[in-house]
Amino acid sequence: MNNLRSSEVSFLNQSLTYIGSFALKCAVQLGISDRINAYGRPMPLRELAQSVSVPPEKEPMLGRLMQLLVQQGVYAESPDGYQLTSFSELIFKEGSNSGMFVLFQTEPDLMKHWHLMSQWLRTSDSGTLFEMAHDGKSFWEVTKG
What we know:
- The protein is mainly alpha-helical.
- Helices cover 58% and strands 6% of the residues.
- Helix 2 packs across helix 6 (97-105).
């Protein structure tokens, strides 16, 4: 029975890992690291919600997002509020290549090819998976605009 339970946990982990990427994207888009840094000390949830313009009725959802990010090691939590970690210092919205990388890698148009993998594998087309999803255009052709 332990083997089955371990397999179920592994299954759920593999099926849901994408959520962490989108939680990280949300943190970059909201500028959470920048706000905590500007606050200068551990930042309580209520202060964080106000600083990133989250309406009071969605503050509990921001709290859930922050708990996920704490579990991932992006932020730390103390009794006084949320704190930066060495990870979260990489994703400042302003002046951060890492923050921009997260936004770029989670851009919907640049992710759509992953949804076509099984279809691509079944075709005899010699093009790449990315090209199939983007009407024969290469990555470089798509990203140059």
